[in-house]
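Below is a filled-in request sheet from our internal design queue. Each sheet records the structural input a requester submitted and the sequence that came back. We keep these sheets so that new team members can see what a complete request looks like end to end.

REQUESTER: design group, bay 2
PRIORITY: normal
MODE: inverse folding
CHAIN LENGTH: 297
BACKBONE (tokenized):
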């Protein structure tokens, strides 16, 4: 029972990271119909900011908001420079653009920083652990869970109570009607990218805090998993992205912990098989969006 609870905590920590990344993808997709595969590079930017802050002797407490600011600003700049000029093009054009942006940033990281993994200085407190009722929980895992909950509550309040949040929800439901009501496309889309950048920054901090390193391809694998989670939850559905992220995290952790040793090498195929099984039962995802078609603006 203790092992099960321990792995459940790990699943919540990993699933929370996937949920934040999937939510960032879903926010942009729900409005633009675009899967931004350069989302992982926003994670990498935040990771490198943490690295350089550590080298400069800046406290981790101040490095975290700087990393979040950098990923948010990079996301808005990415939308303005790369995606706004092709916004009225086909979905394939925007998809190719996202791949191009991702590859350009990866080359910049490799040529101007390093092709190798770089260590990130973290507070000693993050490497510690606490004991709750006989259950040993890593501080970094606990921080990941608490940060995820705080971000999800913040976003829920923002999207339901704030003016721009309500405008984004309206745009996600029906952008054409939302524009007729006076909602500006540029403002809403830039806001969606800003939120996605913020979520990528938080996910990067959680990812780095458990690995203490950053490399040019750091964001590739987690964003690929987040894409799977977004599909699993229902592409374009914000609540579905969160549900899909947590479910994928639970699948990965439980398979790693409880799959027989002889089957561990098949862990990834088995996990994807379970995802396919869920999609066979729920073709539109766990919590599908009200409208599966996003209109380009």
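RETURNED SEQUENCE:
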């Amino acid at each position: 029972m203790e092992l099960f609870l321990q792995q459940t905590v790990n699943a919540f920590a990993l699933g929370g990271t996937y949920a934040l990344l999937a939510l960032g993808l879903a926010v942009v997709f729900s409005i633009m119909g675009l899967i931004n595969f350069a989302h992982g590079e926003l994670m990498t930017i935040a990771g490198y900011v943490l690295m350089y802050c550590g080298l400069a002797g800046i406290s981790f407490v101040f490095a975290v908001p700087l990393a979040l600011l950098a990923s948010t600003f990079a996301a808005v700049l990415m939308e303005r420079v790369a995606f706004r000029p092709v916004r009225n093009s086909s979905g394939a054009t925007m998809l190719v653009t996202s791949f191009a942006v991702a590859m350009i940033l990866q080359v910049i990281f490799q040529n101007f920083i390093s092709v190798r993994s770089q260590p990130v200085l973290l507070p000693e407190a993050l490497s510690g652990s606490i004991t709750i009722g006989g259950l040993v929980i890593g501080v970094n895992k606990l921080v990941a869970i608490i940060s995820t909950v705080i971000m999800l509550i913040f976003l829920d309040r923002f999207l339901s109570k704030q003016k721009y949040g309500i405008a984004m929800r309206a745009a996600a439901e029906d952008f054409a009607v939302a524009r007729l009501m006076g909602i500006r496309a540029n403002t809403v889309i830039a806001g969606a990218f800003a939120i996605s950048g913020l979520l990528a920054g938080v996910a990067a901090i959680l990812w780095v805090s458990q690995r203490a390193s950053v490399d040019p391809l750091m964001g590739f694998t987690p964003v690929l998993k987040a894409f799977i989670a977004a599909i699993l939850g229902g592409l374009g559905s914000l609540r579905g992205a969160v549900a899909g992220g947590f479910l994928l995290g639970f699948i990965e952790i439980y398979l790693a912990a409880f799959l027989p040793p002889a089957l561990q090498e098949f862990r990834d195929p088995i996990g994807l098989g379970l995802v396919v099984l869920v999609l066979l039962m729920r073709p539109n995802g766990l919590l599908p969006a009200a409208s599966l078609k996003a209109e380009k603006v």
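SHEET NOTES:
- The beta strands are 118-119, 129-132, 135-138, 213-214.
- The mean pLDDT is 90.
FILED BY: M.R.
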